[in-house]
Structures are given as structure tokens and as C-alpha cells.
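Dear colleague,

As promised, here are the two records you asked about, laid out in our usual form so they can be pasted straight into your sheet.

NAME FIELD: protein one
SEQUENCE, THEN STRUCTURE:
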Amino acid sequence: MTTADPKAPDDQLLVELDRWLSDNWDPDLTVAGWWERLGLAGWAAPSLPAGSFGRGVSRSDAQRIHQHIAAHGALGAPTGLGMLLAAPTIVAHGTRTQIDRYVPDIVTGRQAWCQLFSEPSAGSDLAGVQSRAERDGDEWIVNGQKVWTSGGHYADMGMLLARTDPGVPKHQGITYFACPMHQSGVDVRPLREMTGRALFNEVFLTDARVPGDGVIGGENQGWAVANTTLMNERSGLGSGASAPVGSAALPGTVAGHLERRAGDFVEPVRPGAGPGSGDGESGVLALMSGGADLLISMARETSAASDPLVRQDLARLYTLAELGRFNSLRLKGVRESGSDIPGMPNLAKLSMSQIVRLTREIGLRIIGAGGMLHAYDDADRRKLVEATGRPLHALVTELALLSPAPSIYGGTDQVQRNIIGERVLGLAREPGVDRGTPFSELAKNT
């Protein structure tokens, strides 16, 4: 008779990770050297399959692994759209050769990726993309314009949607490409937002070239591949998705971080501070992920803690975040049994929009008149903190300015409701002539 192992499988995985970190973490390695070890051992993207540079664990268990790496004092895994979107999409739809070509460079941070989906006339109606890709021997030549491209200014590769057959209905003539960004035919221009940052870009493609073997999922099959990317995006942006646990180091060849010392990018863990609870973009992301604890701490420093309306809304915010967490656990359990919960990523995305709006309203009520002060560059941010002594106020004002975005990017709230209504509840689809009409015959903006 054998004695049951007192540790659950997930805990055994963390024990294995502890041993591996003790043997491999060295702050004097370069970022590239450390990420090489982390990525090829399967710890950088543990939710990828075990045979595709991952460990085959759930998203929530992957988050535990990332938190464990941070708690050990090691540099976290590369972050960005390559890890969130490109790698799982390529694993799902790419050939074995494509997985072996693209995914190692993503999990080791050697290449950063961006998403070349939206266009000036194809945002919510993504299937209306007009960028064209035409075959030229062993290559494709691409012409068109993309917009709202996050991280395009430091990306090495792009997930590109382009039209390859305008003679069929719009959803059927799209191809998904892995597009090299460092070429003369790709022009990236930053778009400055009202927060003062320029996280988004517009990208102009003029006779840009993509190798023939850069087609992911097959010619004219790009809509199905794009939906995998979008589902990963909505899951990652939705409620229940924990605040990102990564590092201040950026992946890819443009940022210039790969050859620097890995230990220089490790941020000390402060008591009571969760990952991403600092200032700057990481703090804003923490607030977006349901920062009730952070707002409660801020309220206790002021008279807002005694305001019954603030207290009630803080309870609402905490409840919404917990519902998201529980739904994430439900989904994990259902998937482990071989099933799924239809529409959960869409519901999570809608919930996140609500969380961000509520976080904005509570935060501005807590800081009061301080909400009228906002700095638009790093130098002014430092001056404002020095003048007010309130470093967290900048997170609140930046989130307030950013708050309309979650209801738009990754598919608008209206798009999520349509998907839930049509694909989950079985309601009648919206009428439209575009479903069976060749794209070349549809009316277009000029």
C-alpha cells in the first residue's frame, strides 16, 4: 500500500520550478541568456503544450508559475503580444516547421510581435480588411494601412491579416501572415493618446514582402486563425485574468534590452504589493485588472473611507473581480474535464469594461480635486509626484483617461454582445448582404 503524495500536482510543479530556479537563475546573465534558459525549459510560456515549448498547464496555473518566478527574485518571462497572442495561435494553426521556427524566438524574447489587424475602415468590422496580399513567386507582396497597432514601434514580426481573394465573401478571402517588420516597405508611425503615451501606432505597408511559408493556417483561411488570436486576446484582457507578471525588460531586437544584465531589470518585491502594483504602465494594468485592494488602501489614507457610497462601490468592485476569478476557475475545471463554457472570453471582456469604468469613478472620487492634475511625460510625472507627494494619483488619472479603451479594443462591447447573442444564445443573426456577396462587390469607404 502506497502513501498518497501530500502535495497536489500543481504544487509538485512549483517544487520542480524552485529546484530549477536555484540551479539556473543568475542575475549576471544577459537578459537574452536568462530568457533562453527560461523559455526553452518551458517556464516562460507554461500554458503552451509540452511539445511546443510549454508545460501544458492552465492559464491560472501559468499565472502561479509567473508569480513564483517573481517571488524567487528572478527576472520574469518576456511579455507582449508574441506571448499572449502569436505563440498560442501559431501552435494551434501552424505547421510543425512554423512552430519550431517562430515560437522559440517568442518564448526566449529574441523577437517581439505586434498585431496588424485593424484598419481605418475595418475596426469592429474586422472582416472588412482591405489590405491586399498578392502572390509573387515564393513571396507575397502586401499593400495597405493598419491602425491601433500596439507595440508596433518595437516589433520584429507582425500578425498580419490581408485580403488574398476579393472575389469571395469577405470572411472567406483573408489570409493570416507572419510578417517581418524590419523592411523598407513597413512604415510605423506612433499615435499619441490622451494619456500622454504612444502605445499605439499606424502602420503603412507599401510593397512589403512576406515569405510564402509565412502563411499561418492556409491561404484564405485567415478568419478562423484570426478568431483564435481574438479569443486569446479577450481571455487575456478579460476579468479573471490576473495582472501581468513580467519584467521591465522588453523583448525583441529594437528595445535594446537583450544584451543588458538580467538582474538590473528585477524590481524588488515590496511587502503587501502585488505584481504590477508600482507606478507607470504596470500600475495602471494592475488597476485595470481589478485593483480594489489598491483603491481601498488609498481610501483609508483619506476621508473617502468613511463615505458610504465609496465603500459600497469598493464592495461592488471587489465582487466583480472575484466573480471574474471564480469564472476563470470554473473554466479551468471544465476544460480539464474536456469540455468548455461557450462565450466565457466574451463575458470576461464585457466584465473588464465594467470593472475599468467603476475603477475610474471610485479612483477619481477618492483623490478629489487631484483628479484634475495629470502629467503627459516622464519628466512632468516626476515633478507632479514631488509637488503632491502622491505617486498613486498618477495611476488614477491615467486610468481615467484610458478607461474608454477596454470597451473598444479587442472587439467592442457591442461586438461581444453580438457574439454572445448569436453564437451562445442562438439568437437570430443580424441581417446583412455582405455574408454571401463577393468582397469586390461590397460598397466601401473611399
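NAME FIELD: protein two
SEQUENCE, THEN STRUCTURE:
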Amino acid sequence: MNRPSVILGIFLAVSALVLSACDTHDRQGSDPDHAGDDGVHTRHDDRDAHADGDDHHGHGDSDEPSIAITHFTDFAELFVEFPVMSVGNESPFAAHFTWLDNFRPVAEGKVRIHLRGGGLPEEEFSIGEASIPGIFRPVAVPAHAGQREVIVVLESAGQTSVHDLGAHTVYTSKDVIPAAMEEDEGNAISYLKEQQWQVDFATALVSQRTLRESIRAVATIKAAADGEAEISTPHDGQLARRGNSFPSIGTHVRKGQVLAVVGSPLGRELKTSDKGVSGTALRAPIDGVIAHVHATAGSYLKKGQSVFHIVDPARLWLESRIPESDVLRLTDADGAWVSLPSVDGPFVIITKGENANGRVVAFSQAIDPRTRTAALILEFINPDKKLRIGMLLEAHVLTGRTVDSVAVPLSAIVRDNGVQVVYVESGGESFERRVVQLGIRDGDFIEVRSGVTGGERVVSRGAYLVKLAASGPAEAGHGHAH
């Protein structure tokens, strides 16, 4: 089964779970198709067209217009829906809270609604628990009419997230609330919070970043010139261990440590004493790890025969093969980054500045006639000894040129019908498909030259699921359990 089929199956399964969830909650009838944005949307529920549907907004059976707002703090995202308020009447809020550090629903806490300003007394309404993880349902019953600042406060997990939703009118009665204008939702894609919370989903802020230009090249991890050593027998003789064990692959050794001994030539037995086997000691010339063992204890060896290969994994070389067509662009190489298999984020080598963790060893002045490439060698500190000698990687060698531009996470880019697109969050549960023109890639971020602007948010994890929501059956976007 190919990858799109697998993802489609997951998406349909998640949609089925969301649809079944709505049967366990209030069924009150409203239009589940809605699209918010970073501001305020006022909408009038269409009861006639969806008389049999569930009211996922929790607004009851009234026909008053409703408001949808998405607001972010440093800690949390709030997507909230509530009917236009009037004096003495209940206005139930459906407040969806998502933690921004992991994009999981806020499961516990207290939510308070404050109505302030307008020269009127402050009013407060609160609820102490979520109706389901992520959704809190405080109910406001205003006592005063006028322009009121609406502030929603979440207190959870030792953090306080304050969401200022701006000024909203509290009317004297429902009768004077003006009818809402029908909004053109355009090509908005509905993808509900209940769906987002069940999958690996996240959004990221579109921001201005300094991006480093790079050249893509095939690279190999090698030992540094003084970071490996081959230990051979100095003469014919029998190999014996020194101490209780014989070194094996992966054994850490210190410079000067005796690894084994080579006895006298054939015809003379190894002499033993209380101090161990006598003979010529084979010592480690460097600190490092044994990478290969070419002989076993007790075997007879000829002079010059290799016994141990030692490497120092703390310092390694990255040898990149720079294509001939790119050689002239690389006038001031100041590092490289490589994507490592099964590791989040690239490994970066910096050769200049305070954060330098490597240096340029050599840049070949000759083009290899067979590969039409020139070798660039960077030495670097190997953190946690994760990189292994012999690894074949794709390297991105930094040219020294930078550009300040709008960028998004690389994971936000989806290829759709031959073009690169992102999905911009226009509201907590609505998204817009945008075709983008891409530029420089720097690690996990990529320049976007057109299609998005700074301050917008794009789907950075789960973008392909939003794509499926746009092309899947209409009911896949329904099923609120509000």
C-alpha cells in the first residue's frame, strides 16, 4: 500500500471517531460549517437547512448571531464561539484551549470570562472544569448593556493565559440584536479541533529569519588524520591478552594502554609470571575506541600483521564532494548542516564565531576527473558520539551568504498537483490553501518568497491531513462534540 493510501485510511478513521463522539454530547442543531480568522466572525445559524444536525457550538435553540474568535498567547491558543450577548440572557461560550508547546488539548483548569469597561461594573463568569479535554463551557449572563471588553483567562498547570478578545456590544435585549450578514467562506477548509487533537498536528508562526545559503553535496564521515591508528605486530610471535580480557570492538582505550602482548618468535613459548604474560606490549597510541580487531588471543602472527584499528569518535571529518558547477560559489565556506536518519533536526557544523564547533581542514584546488567534484573537508566535534565513521550523508555546505526573509518550517510544505503549497490557519478550525514560491533552505526552515506574510500561522505538522480534508467527503469536516 502506498503512503497516500495509508494516510487517507488514518484520516478517515479519525473522522469516524469524531463523528461517533458527537453522539455522546448535546444534540441541539446548528450549521457546523464555519470559518474563523484571526479577527472576529459574526454568523447567523441556519436552522432550516440543518434542522437534524448537532449544535456543536453549544448555543441552544436560539437564532441570535454568533461570534468566533481565535487568539494566541505565548502559552495557549484559544478558539472560542459564543452568541452575541444581551442583558439577562445566557451566552454559552465554547472555549477550545490548546497548549502551544505540544498542541494537545488543555485537559484541566479554570476558565474565567471578564466583561469590563464602558463605565460599567466589571462582571465575571467562570467554570472550574472542562466538559471534555480541551473544551470549557462557561456561561455569561450580562447584567449591563454597552460596549464591553471581553477577556478570557485560563488558569491551568501553574500557568495563566490571558486572552483579550477586544470590545463587543452587550445589547439591552435579544430583540435589538441586528441580524448577521452571511459570510462568504470562500475556499476555507474545515478541520476541527477534535480532529487536530487526535493526530500529530501543529501550527507555526510565519516569521522573518536570517537564512544561510548552502550548496548540496554528497558527504562521507571519516576519521581525522590524527584520529585513527592501526596497531601491528613488531615481529613474529604468538598473540596473548594482557590481563583478564582481550579487547573487542567498541572497547574504549586510553593512550599508552597495553592492549595485548606479542610473545617471542616461534620456537619459544610465552613466559608467564605473577605479573602476567611477558612479551612485546601492543599499546594504544591515541585515546579512542577499537573499531576493528583483526586477530584473536593465542593466534600466531607475522611481523607487520594488523591487530587493532583504533579511532577517536570525539573528533571527525566531514568530506563533502562539491560539484564542479558550484565550486566558484564556495568562496568562504563557514560550515555545513546534514540531516541525520531518524533524528529530529539537522546536525550543524559552524566554523566561525563564538558557537564554532569545527574548522575547515582543506578545500581541494583540483577537480576529480572521474566525479567532477572537489573535496571540502570540515573537522567537527562529534556530540554524544552519534555520527559514525563511514556514514554516507547529504550535506548542505554553507557558502557564507545570508538573506533575511520570511520563512516557514520545511514540514509545512506540501506538494499538491505539481505545485508547492502551505495551509494557512485562518481560524482555529479553518484553513486556506496557498501556493508558495520557495527560496533558500536552511536546516528545518525554508524561505517563502510569495504566498504568505509574517505573522500568519501555517500547519507545520499534519499538513497532509488538511489536504485530505480539502479533497475528502464533506462530512469529514463535521461532527463537533462541542
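A couple of things worth noting about protein two: Residues 221 and 388 are 7 Å apart (CA to CA). The domain at 36-186 is CATH 2.60.40.1930 (Immunoglobulin-like).

Best,
R.
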